[in-house]
Amino acid sequence: MDIRPDSAGGQIAVVCDTNVAWADTGQMSISIRPGENQTGMARFLQANMHRSEEANDLLDQIVPEKKINLLIISEQYRNRDSPTWYSDNRGPAPIWVRNSIGIPVEDHSSRDGYGWIRIKGVTYVSCYLTPNKSIQDFQEKLDLLEDTLQEAGGRIMTAGDLNPRAVEWGMRKTDPRGKRILEMAARRGLLEMNTGKTSTFRRAGNVGTIPDITLASEEVAPLMVNWQVLEDYTGSDHQYVKFTMKKSLGVKIHKCKRNGWNVSKMNKDKFSLAVTRGQNSLMERSDMEAEATMEATMQIINQACEASMPRKKRYRNMDAAYWWNEEIAELRRECIICRRTATRKRATGVQTYKAAKKELNKAIKKSKRQSWGKLREEVDDDPWGLGYKIVTRKLGSLSASASMGAETMRHIVDVLFPTHPVREKDFYETPLTNIPFFTEEELIIAVTSLKNKKASGPDGIPAEVLKAVARVCPQILLYMMNACLAAGILHKQWQVQKLVLISKGKGDLNSPSLIDLNFPSSIHIEESRYTKKVDLLATLDVNNAFNSARWAETITALERFQTPEYLMRILRDPKRKKITSGAAQGSKIRDAGGYVPVETYIPLQIPTEVGSVVTTTKAAIKHRGIWMDNRLSFHKQLKQAADKAASVTSALSILMVNVSGPRPSKRRLLMTVAQSIMLYGAEIWADALKKKTHRKLLAVVQRRGALRIACFYRTVSEPEIVVIAGTIPIDLLAQEKKKVFLRKTEVT
Length: 748
What we know:
Deoxyribonuclease I, Chain A, alpha+beta
């Protein structure tokens, strides 16, 4: 990672930085390298939304228009459902970091009335102090803010609506609030960044004021430029403030690789011609080594792609709001004109301005309704399209996590791939003969098995392109693969895999794991006529079970199974850096549990010590995604499944209103999502639905889905609506899954 010291010896803030941690599998190399970065400008927006729904809507349009990277907000209409939305305890002073720029937030916290985040050594504070409190309450909140700034130290920028008046930022006089803020700023070495006397609070019929202020430490102030009050219509009584950070702040934007190709627009004639020409030139150089052959072949395929199809467009997450149109844009311009008129002619212009605001608000709501109506109509053609992704919040759900430092990445890779002793005799130099080379038939079978519309690897070549090459000129691929097999090497690009950390919303990101295995180490079940009771079920969590497997032992096992030497030579390639751990996922690990009889009464909570770790027994435990309680009633499993399915049903109901929307067959298809959630693991707990209270947990959720399928209202009973909607009762579906599973077991 490139961290450059400034003149004072501190770290320069990096507001926009994307670093990539690469890890390879097998004996391929592990490397940690930051992406190629280019210096850029970070754009900030300071906004008081005054709890306005209209302002909340227009913010979705203002942010992409101004290309904002980080927002410091006061009095928002509602919190955004985003992992990069950092709110204070009471809620009126959040900070919103835009997902698409990969800002590495190192730390964050919040108090009553303000919140802060830290990005590469710079602390950004958002605060809001209401004017309705007494001066004593104001002073208490200001003291807490000053204490936080003192603890943070170093580089600081604080902004928000503090509702003060001071001559220093353009007001006619300084009030007690302004005086206290100026004194606090002097003690902490903060400078006022407000420029000019443009008002930020403009209510029609009232004199404009400047309650929104921006303060920065002496180190940060020279880096802030273009502080200005925007004249755009915001839907709030406040005008937003925009400013940028200069390049010397060290803002880094990841320079991504070029996008892949749009295979759907391939010109097959041009592609065939380019591949054929490339093959002819390749066959003329028969004395090439294997590595050179692979490089030349990959270059031919890349050139053929460039000549026959365009590149995909990169999604910047800076598109206009989905409801935005020219009519709304024109109404917003009219609102700006009417607001200026109302400021100059208060007696006659206020009512006109209010009418213009009302028309704009109506147009936004109308456009939203129409956009959702189009989405519902599109469900008939594509049930799993944009509408489904929006309501289930799957759109962008796997966006990249925030960037992290080189030390953090190195720690994560060390945890995921621990170091073990290597074998002394790790490769052989004995030349091999009689290597069974690949045939054209085997190549065609392998290429055909690749699935279309899947993400390509680091080389950027999708499966569709490989299939096209195999159809036009399979010899070029066959020649390359056999050259690799004869030399016992792999192309260096094939040895690289991107390691992406996906947060589950819990746990420490600095303690990652690829796979966690839970298997029972001891279990004893007593079964009577009325109940099943587990006396003790202990589980052992094997952290990083797959990727921590010793590579030397894997090599030894392959040799024991008499793996052909021409394949072992590829695994022992001495030109690659050794990895001492890691195994392919999908390996079979047998349970090592034993039978431990327990004949005495065991309380629900028992502290148990395993090494230095102390754990406590619980009434229920999650194993392989199934919640098991001490009586094997599966009540918690059914409750958890019902709650999760209910939230999915509620989300899908947005697409399935009673009037208009998709036809019943598409509605029934969408509701199978909730049905699959409820039936997870039904092979185990199907008999639990014989109890009415357990069956009712799932039947209530199924009834809600059936109402949406049949377009009925809630007065219809569960048995009737299930028949009308054409769905099978959930208890019968569970029993069906169990019987199918038992039938498969009998056959095998």
